[in-house]
Amino acid sequence: MRAPSPTPLLEARAITVRFGGLEAVGGLDMAIGRNAIHGLIGPNGAGKTTVLNVLTGFIRPSEGELVFDGEAIGGLGVNRFARRGLARTFQNIRLFGAMTVLESVLVGAHQRFSANALSLVFGRRAAREAERAMIVRAYELLDFVGLGAEVADRVATTLSYGHQRRVEIARALISAPKLLLLDEPLAGMNAVEKSEIADLVRQVRAQGIAVLLIEHDMQIVRRLCDHLTVLDYGRRLADGPPDEVLADPAVQAAYLGRAR
Amino acid sequence: MDYFGQLLANGLVLGAIYALTAVAFTLVYGVVRLVNFAFGELFMLGAFLTASLMLPEVRLIGVAVPMPGFSLPVAAAGAIALTALLGVLVDRIAYRPLRNAPRLAPLITSIAVSVVLQSLAQTIWGAEELRFPEFHLATLPPVVLFDSIYLSVMDLVVMATALAAMLGLSAFIARSSLGRAMRASAEDQMAATLVGIPVNRVVAAAFAIGSGFAALAGLLYAQTYGFAHSGMGFLPGLKALTAAVLGGIGSIPGAALGGLILGLVEALGAGYLPNGTAWKDAISFVLLVGLLYLRPQGLLGKPELNSAGRGSLLGGASDFGAVWLRAAFATFDGWLARAAAGGPRAALALLAFALLLGALVPSDYWLRILTMVVVYGMLASGLNVIVGFAGLLDLGFVAFWAVGSYLTSILFVLLLKDQFGVAPADIWWLLYLNLPLAGLVAAGFAVILGTPTLRLRGDYLAIMTLGFGEIVRVVAINWMDLTNGPMGIRGIPAPNLFGIALGSPRAQFFFALALAVLVVFAIARLVRSYVGRAWVAIREDEEAAEAMGVPTARYKLYAYAASGFVGGFVGVFYAHSQQYISPLNFSLFENILLLMLVVLGGLGTFVGPFVGALIWIVFLQLALDLPFVQAYPETRFALLGVVLVVLMVFRPQGLAASARVALTMSGARSKEAA
Fold this sequence. Notes:
Chain A has helices at 48-55, 78-84, 101-108, 117-121, 125-144, 161-173, 191-206, 218-224, 242-247, 249-256; strands spanning 10-19, 22-32, 37-41, 63-68, 71-72, 86-88, 179-183, 210-214, 227-232, 235-240. By secondary structure, chain A is an alpha/beta fold. The radius of gyration of chain B is 26 Å and the shape is globular.
């Protein structure tokens, strides 16, 4: 296992999220290392997706700050988070209905296009080249996530559940992110598919992209992640290497519901 | 004081009428989330039915029919019951099949129903005003308050009736079991169904009560102003909708409050602002737009109603229809999809066909009709950018068209010819300059109008843009110095190129066709790039689009701008082709018509707008050959409305929906696909 590098890629400091009177996340500190596969785990309702929504700008925390790659990013619009290099998938797959797989993936490349309206209308060469380059990249990524070129022209929402997840990952990767945030990417998959996706996550990391992963399957988490943060009732229960964290009696109590 | 008092009294009467109609909108919206535009027409029917029942004899479809000659209260009760029944019938036929359809389908249907009812009323009672019979209470001397405010007895009756109706309804909803069921259905229809509430019956009850309220408001209005007319429901209907939104749609106290505020503001504004009577319609809409900007949920409404509907505004294939019908559509779709996959070749074939048509059609009459098809197709294409691709319902598009038409007309006629004596023929080239210029001005205008709407979604967005459209129209009517007001602008020169007149119907057709090629080409290039993908992504899932790095607010404005550009661009040609424009050309009805054309043809396709325009305009002409339609021309609109309702039920996605638009640049993926 790699040691986390000294300056983290993403640092969340004292994040608190309140919905009305309810505190969903309380004073959370969390650091995601460069080139880490970081697991975010915890029982149902612990606030994992809320944290992921904070880290991608969907929810503005009531308190606390976010530092990504050395810069404060709290308060930016959601699309700015994406433009800085944070790409995500959704717990309930959110592909664009009525779009083909290729088109869906290309939406993820939005920030990498820059042609203005006139050069698009007049079909200037630079605009055409950019489009062609991104289409090539989209096909590469479809291959990378384990989908063949033949699905490219199918309407994305007609694919099987497992394939839709892969399209979502390709759509996130085409933006060339620094951090990929996956919200339960293994949910509803069988053992074979799970290990395939786990391999995919390792390959993503091998390309120098850090991964944050919300997951319930402890076997996979133990094997895949090199750092874990455990949430319970919106608070950080434990943080550290998987073996250490999963052996923590407090963590076991939270999962198994033993008296604390 | 006495002037103020009088205005106050007028405002209260008007406010009471608006409030009653607003209750109709709000009640139905609360239960089924439907803006039922047809309430304006039920309002009108309430007035006609009451008047008819009060008279000894009425001419219906030109035939004198003896009537019972009831007194006002009896006639009113009868009219309210009949209208309520009609409301239930409309729900059963036109809205219930669409209960689970995406939002735009029932909205379009409600507009279609309103067109049907209005043209039927015009057919039955005629185009003239029907004098509302006098009720004996109206002959009593007015009540004088504080020595200065004169209130007629009927004014007091109006206010008292409205108050009693509202209180009665509130008590009914709070106490009765049907009222409880209504509240439950409003909160969560699925849950209400699961606990055994007969939701369909509850919705029918909401329509019955709402229609009854609209009828009551209509008959009080007709009684106050002394006439009934087939078009009388349109503006009060819009105002009442405004009032309902103002108060917070879904809230009954909100509707009452909104109606009252609107009535008072209008009456006081008309009395105190310079030239206030002319501007009073604009006042309400300015109020609406301002309020929606600052507080989208209205004064007493709930914010969650301003929620995003995801996906296409119309949705996919219908579950209704016989097997053979669905099979026929499937064959047609396969054929269309293959043609659309042909891309540029299919487009060139269509263009060649259009050119051939232009060269061979012998009659000037049909050439003019075909030119209108192309013009309306272009305008609908512009609207399609924002509605079809970006998924934002826009009922104010017609304003951009007006900007283009007025810009070129003012420059050519009011400024250069009238002020400087420049002959239009000497500056023929200005037309070609005006095309892009008007496009840019209208695009800028669209961005200005679009900015405050960015936070709004769904029905709220539609209502706000509708408000903008109406404001522009009222300005065009009343800003006499700039626009010549209701007289319009005459003598706009026909198109001309290097001194060669292009005024003949055939030349105009080819001119329009050339512009259409430009418009469709430009739109296609934008849509088939990252810009179009961003638009469709916003339509399908705004949050996910944002998470993919799409600055959604900016791309919505781009969509407005592109749509506005097309509106302004085509507007220039429209003015020169018609050679006369007036504010009547740019009414809300035109906007609704354009929307219907896009829906008819297929939202989010390139051919859809033209298919819609072709069907509509050719339909209008062919319908003129039917003997019945010749006798009663307004029934054409009723027929169109019926066609649309049928289409929404059986083919909500539009006729040419399967001519799917690819969202990648053509030619950019020739090798990679292998």
